[in-house]
Amino acid sequence: MHFLDSTGHVLQLLIALGGAVILFGLAFAGYARALFIGLVVMTPFQPINSSYGSANMAVTYVVGLAMFLNSFRSGVKQKTKIPLIVPFVLLYMAFFISWPFSPKLFWPKYMIYLIMVTSNVVLFYMSYAYFRKERDLEVFFKALIVSNVLVIVYCLLQLYMGFGHISLFGIEELSLNDNRLDRRLGGPFFAVGITAEYFVIQSLFLAHYMVKSGRLHRIGFIILFLNIAMLVATGNRGGFISAFLALGIFLYFYRRYIGTAGVAAVSVAFFVGLAGASFVVVKYTEFGVLYDRLLGTEFEGYIPDTRVGWAGVVEKIVDSPLIGHGPRIVQTQEYRTPPLRWPEGHITYYPHNLYLYVLYTTGLIGFLAYAAWLITYWRILQSADRYKGLVGIGDGLPTLAKIILVIFLIDQIKVEFLRAGLLDYQHYIAAIFGMFAAYRNIEIEKNDVVTDCTDASGNAPGKVTQNMTGRAALRERKRML
What we know:
Mean pLDDT: 85
Shape: globular
Order of helices and strands: HEEHHHHHHHHEEHHHHEEH
Structural class: mainly alpha
């Protein structure tokens, strides 16, 4: 999956857009929700991915438009206000404020980037609109798990490939990303650090599903083991540290569900799995450099040796601290013929830090706009946490959302998901964040089965009937316990 740079590839992208128009017809005919789930599954895989966008981006726009038109046509009214509209507007204002003061050479790149970013917003609200019933959560989680398995298969093919090149069915546009020559697994995303972060977040989703549903224990542990193995193969130190943080935070907040014995068992299982995965990766693959990199880490003050470029970025931020240098960073390799003289004051590399990236691109105004978005989103999660109606995998979902958000913000210290080449991962984040934001809108379904509840003595103090809503049934279960 490589960036396209020829007229033939652009024509292929146009053909993909034509296919997206066909999908619009299907979405408008009532298949939009199924297409959304398909997008979730295929988020890490964008077979046609160019500097002008991707096939998934085109599908997002047409399916999103169909969902909006269907909602308008059916006269369905939102029960609650659409969230985060104002913070999104503030982000766009930050983009447009920094735009005019940047070199005109970059303006076409900024326009394309704005179209890409807007597809993230569209997908966020598609996800928000999708969740209506409790069963939608089950479908969404299963889609994420299927996608996780596909990513593992992709990575296993990369491990087998080593430093060679594989094109599926001989089609160059269906090529796997090349692994890094420093013996680090690339994964489907265009950044090793992002691949590592993905495995950490997906492991949290899977662990929540296993705890709350009581299903997938055997296959779930296999997937978790493979997630750990792929994480080790990336050789990403930050992702490795994030995995330990995620484990500690998850066990702290889920200890009341699994008990003290469960916490101990999960901890032992994690370290045994890590040891086993590390042995397999180091012994049988060419990608066992993680522990060498950890032991060889050096610091210049508080800055790791691989992030010495942070100082140069800070110097550039000081040059334009309020409005930044433009909506995104543009690299020289994005031009077939780079300009002889690069615009003065503009860096040509990514700082590998989301916060420096935001300050460099959109300045303090943009940083405050992102902060406003995060604060508003956190408040949504806080208010959702007080909503106790859902059972099963819906129970405690806001807690999972806050854990993932915290891990995401910590891990972004060493990478920035806002790069123009990471539209696939941006779509993934947009979909899961949209789901979490929609938690309060999910209707509680009636139980279909009558459940007898007896105590330890065999007495039957009560019964949960099929006429009870999920919330009433939950109250009845708690009363009987």
